[in-house]
Predict the 3D structure of the following.
Amino acid sequence: MTDSKKTTARRNVLKGAAVAAGAVAAPMVAKAQTGPINMRWQSTWPAKDIFHEYALDYAKKVNDMTGGDLKIEVLPAGSVVPAFGLLEAVSKGTLDGGHGVLGYHYGKQNALALWNSGPAFGMDANMVLAWHKYGGGAELLAKLYASIGGNVQSFLYGPMFTQPLGWFKKPITKTSDFKGLKFRTNGLAIDLFTTMGAAVNALPGGEIVPAMDRGLLDGAEFNNATSDRILGFPDVSKVCMLQSYHQSAETFEIMFNKNKYDALPAKMKSVIAIATEAASADMSWKSVDRYSKDYAELQTKDKVKFYKTPDSILQDQLKIWSEILEKKSAENPMFKEIVASQKAFAQRAVKWEQDTVVNRRMAVNHFFGAKKA
């Protein structure tokens, strides 16, 4: 065979190999390019609330960080199911996921509310997240969900600030003022305010102001200056009481249908975890900016009067919390286990924080003047 014929033969062999390789490779490429994974979620918040904005912020972070390989669409409360129906809808796969708070599942298992209502043994919400991630909380939550057949993968994020005692027709000066008061709250705070004498109605966020407007409620709490202003609280009340132990350390919950989550690639699960922490930080920073602006405008534009909740009421709340925790721990072994874990972490963490962090009130008074009572 001449050199020319040998060269031609080699080229034909290489060409054939390339064709054969292409025949094998083509299906593999096609399989990898099946398009983005689409998820339909719902939040437990009205579309206009800043909480729904937080849900959209979270979805955008995940969508962007996955380069569009995962696309989460978040609908507002009521689009598919009522706000309090989120857990069941995600568990069944009616929804692929959602954004809410654990206290909204109180009716399914009251121990779930230990992550969102209660004094948290002196911890703030960021410390509760520390307990959840590093102190065993996440494992206890997974165990708790499994005990009630919750087919979900849960992520907690977004530390909230201490919530107001609530909005009322006139200032609350003593615990007995709650006797017979028609009041809205949720989670374990239902037990607290019921013990304080209130007639409690656990309405979702979007239904509170209309109920107050119709006289179905005498008072209500929701969460923060921005949400309260957007939802229209100053249209039905001009009195807001600040500071309370009913929800002093609440966080948000991101929830995936577990089957849908388990089917995701490992790298995508890592992105979700990182996006959750990034969204948590961003939400906490955004809330400082937005809440402080709306707190000022509630006073200047909406003519709302803010009052500090008397210490006597706060002390009564703590006494009642001790009774509630003891009673429910005796009734519910999981409740008891979670309380013990949370309390042990708090005892160490809160002592460190209280010994270490300087009281900012002195600096505030120095730079901006002492606040008049």
Residues 317 and 349 are 22 Å apart (CA to CA). The first helix runs from residue 3 to 32. The mean pLDDT is 91.
